[in-house]
Design brief:
The protein is an alpha/beta fold. It has one domain: Mannitol-specific EII, Chain A (3-Layer(aba) Sandwich), CATH 3.40.930. Strand 4 and strand 5 form a beta hairpin. Helix 2 runs antiparallel to helix 3. It comes from Sporolactobacillus mangiferae. It holds the Pfam family PTS_EIIA_2. InterPro entries: PTrfase/Anion_transptr, PTS_EIIA_type-2_dom, PTS_SugarTrans_NitroReg.
């Protein structure tokens, strides 16, 4: 697995106030476009993909008290960087469940996977899955207040 410090960047940890995943994707996608980390079409491609292949992950199966997360991502041609962008939501928003798409889960954190290399998405996904399922990491994340604290926590 790649060095976790290279997968995350404190400048790519966002505190968002959105009421839907579409609004969240517009906000985060706009910031990523400004930083030239994604190409035009990224927001639309990701929104469309989320509707067809939901990314909400119900972590209550791992820990009944855990907050749920989402792992939005899209095809490599929309990405100019490889890594993970973290968005903490002010209030949870509904994402459809990855495993049971007819159900929704209240998501407090979205981990956007950006990947400009074919065949390496599974590494990023398996790293994140390991992170989410070891202990109650997401609730611990929620006790942190700054980008720097979150960055230190997710890269340790």
């Amino acid at each position: 697995m790649a060095n976790t410090e290279k997968l995350f960047d404190p400048d790519l940890i966002f505190f968002e106030d959105a009421s839907s995943f579409e609004e969240l994707f517009q906000s985060v996608g706009g910031k990523l476009l400004e930083k030239k980390l994604v190409n035009p079409g990224y927001i639309e491609a990701m929104t469309e993909r989320e509707k067809n292949f939901p990314t909400g992950l119900d972590l209550s199966v791992v820990n009944p008290d855990s907050l749920s997360v989402a792992i939005p991502h899209t095809e490599v041609e929309y990405c100019n960087w490889k890594g993970v962008v973290v968005a903490r939501l002010k209030e949870p928003i509904a994402f459809h469940n990855m495993i049971s798409p007819d159900k929704t889960v209240p998501v407090k954190y979205a981990f956007f996977i950006l990947n400009n290399e074919k065949n390496s998405q599974t590494n990023l996904l398996s790293y994140l899955m390991g992170f989410f399922t070891s202990g109650d990491k997401v609730s611990e994340l929620d006790s942190l207040n700054t980008k720097e604290e979150i960055y230190q926590f997710i890269t340790k």
